[in-house]
Design goal:
mainly alpha, 4 helices, about 0% strand, globular
Length: about 80
């Protein structure tokens, strides 16, 4: 399975309107999360940078996801019970 992206960089544009920003953020994150990029970038991060990224993403999930959504969407745990 190839990690090559078919997402053109010019499809990402911020600041025009909310719909375009949301679509662009999804594309940006898909590009960012490619294995080759993460395998290259993550070892170069300082400890505090790793902590910042984890804290920011965790905060976004806590703020905007219900517990059930967190377990199903992030943890891929579809058997979670309260």
């Amino acid at each position: 399975m190839s990690e090559k992206s078919s997402i053109p960089a010019d499809a990402i544009c911020f600041g025009l309107d909310r719909v375009t920003d949301e679509r662009s953020l999804v594309l940006f994150l898909r590009l960012f999360c490619r294995d080759q990029l993460l395998d290259t970038l993550v070892p170069r991060l300082e400890d505090f940078e790793i902590e910042q990224v984890v804290d920011q993403l965790s905060t976004l999930m806590r703020t905007h996801l219900q517990e059930k959504e967190y377990h199903e969407l992030f943890l891929d745990d579809h058997d979670h019970h309260h």
